[in-house]
Amino acid sequence: MRTWFWTIAVFAAAVALALVLREHSGNVVIVAQPWRVELSLTLAVLLLVGAFALLYFVLRVFAWVGQRPERFRSWRSRRSVRRDQEALESGWINVLEGKYVNADKDFTRVVTRTRSDKRKVLAALASANANHQLGEYGQRDQALAVAKQAAGDDVRLREAWAIVAAEIYLDQNRPQDALALLQPLQDASSRYLHATRLLLRAHRQLGNYDRVYELTRFLLRRGVLEKDEARQLIEISAAARLRSAGPQGFKAIWGDLRSDERVLPDIALAAAHVLAADGQHEETSRILEAAIAVEPDPRLLSVYSQCPQQLVSRRLAKAEEWLKKHPDNAALLAAMGNLCLKGQLWGPGELYLKRSMSLRSDMRIHALLGNLYDRLGRREEAMKHWRLAAGVVGVLPVLARSRHLPAADMSDDPTLIDVEIPPEPPVDAQLVEAPIAASAADYVAEELASAAAEPDAASPANEVKSSGSAQEELDEYFDSAPIPGVDVSQTSDGPRGER
Questions:
Q1: Where is 69: in which H helix or E strand?
Q2: Which of 106, 212, 325, 343 could join 237 via S-S bond, C-beta 3.0 to 4.6 A?
Q3: Dihedral, 114, 119, 120, 123 alpha carbons, nearest 10
Q4: Residue 394: pLDDT band by 50, 70, 90 thresholds?
Q5: What is the mean pLDDT of the chain?
Q6: What predicted TM-score, i.e. pTM, was given to this entire model?
């Protein structure tokens, strides 16, 4: 559109000039003795315009020739910049694709050819990062040294070098070196948010949980950390601070936490351990109950079931309320079984433990059932569960009584599995008798046999006698079942202590 507009304007000017010159048919006389030149006015104007255009062209040619060296230098500079940019782009594309060898070649080419300190620093830092990913630590350190030297006194380039070097040191688990580079940046201004994140990593690797807590709070306020990540860091750091502070500094640290942070599992566990060690069992109960109400974590339930006997009734009543919401929670059932055993409620304790074992069988439930059956005088069942628990703890399967010990099976994780008791192979009479103390199972069998051979021996005082009719045994077995809504610790027939 603009071209058409100027074309029409030129034609209009030409037509107007032609009309003006046509009406003015004057002459122009140039007298230069002894010459006399007479021209028409139209020709004189055209000659003047042509002379001006020719002079302008000649002057432009002379100017272009005079500026040729500088123009050549500018052209070479633009070509060099374009070449460096292409190499940097290719190197970063290789970095993103994981081709670190090719990336290092591109960056090294820029370092050796470029005339710009900024591009040299950028290429050297990128080369250091690529060599770090390749595990070439010698070349990485050389690239860092080149970048530091090329940065000179430029503040921004020095800060960029410090941040990249610190991140590399943190990846190599050298937090002290990273801390020396990052601390001046973080102290200088709070706008170095990436440096503050790296500083958080360094303090976390060093175990400085006070600084981890402070930096996490700061980054969370600035919106740099995600809430889930900040929540996890606060949980870890606050739990470590509570454990290190002990009962003396508990109130200051606990008061600095928000209500939604106090119910986090690790924080609640740390607070419970500190208060329980100080004898503050009521406060421990309140902290654990608030955390379990939000999330019935197995660790919280396990600690909740460990309490003095006078608190069993209250905690058991609270656990029954949770059981209505989580009827299939194996950890909750195991905790209730443990509470019943502490309160000498043998029947309900067995029922809770068996329900828990039907959902998830682990060594702790086997150990508790073994203790319960031993308390009730049911030695065979107690020995069975103890052997299962010992087999899980010791990783090895329960072995048959034989001279030859099979190799240990290490293929499965033994944390939450049952150990099957293999049937004993028939003993060949021709085999050589097993050496004495070759297996602990022989000693257990002999001990049980000798105990069975002496039926008149006095039973331990803490065992439940099996005399009487079956109905009397059931009445005695379930006589200590808790009555809903009644605190048995306040009645005359409450649970009695161990004698």
A1: helix 68-97
A2: 212
A3: -110
A4: low
A5: 78
A6: 0.64
Q: Which residue has the tokens 């919401």?
A: 325
To the question of domain 83-152 being in CATH 1.25.40, the answer is: yes
SS3 93: helix
Q: What are phi and psi of 40, to 5 degrees?
A: -75, 160
- Which is more confident, 15 or 176? 176
Residue 34, preceding peptide bond in cis (omega within 30° of 0): yes
Collapse the DSSP code of 287 into the 3-class scheme (helix H, G, I; strand E, B; otherwise coil) and give the result.
Answer: helix
Identify the sign of the CA torsion 222, 226, 229, 231.
positive
List CB contacts of 412: < 8 A, sequence separation 6 or more.
Answer: none
- What's 433's DSSP letter? P
pLDDT tens readout for residues 1-19? 788 888 888 888 878 777 7
Q: Sorting pLDDT into bands at 50, 70 and 90, what band is 179?
A: very high
- C-alpha span between 224 and 431 (Å, rounded): 74
DSSP readout, 137-185?
Answer: HHHHHHHHHHHHHHHTT-HHHHHHHHHHHHHHHHHTT-HHHHHHHHHHH
Q: What is the CATH number of domain 309-400?
A: 1.25.40.10
CB atoms within 10 A of CB 344: 16
Contacts of 425-433 with CB under 8 Å at 24 or more apart are: 425/400, 431/403, 432/403
Residue whose tokens read 């006389």? 29
3-state secondary structure at position 460? coil
Q: Which residue has the tokens 């502070």?
A: 245
Cβ 375 vs Cβ 462: under 8 Å: yes
User: Within 10 A of 134 (CB to CB), how many other CB atoms are there?
Assistant: 14
Give the E-state strand segments of 236-351 in sequence order: none
Angle at alpha carbon of residue 383, lines to 379 and 388, rounded to 5°: 155
Pair 462, 374: CB distance under 8 Å: no
Contact 368, 341 (CB under 8 A): yes
Half-sphere exposure of 89 (CA within 13 A, CB side): 6
- What whole-number percentage of the chain has pLDDT above 90? 39
> Which ranges of 400-459 does DSSP label H, i.e. alpha helix?
440-452
3-state helix, strand, coil in the chain (%, to 5): 70, 0, 30
Q: Which backbone phi and psi does 428 adopt, to 5 degrees?
A: -80, 130
CA dist 344 and 310 (Å) reads 12
Residue ranges per structural domain of the chain: 83-152, 309-400
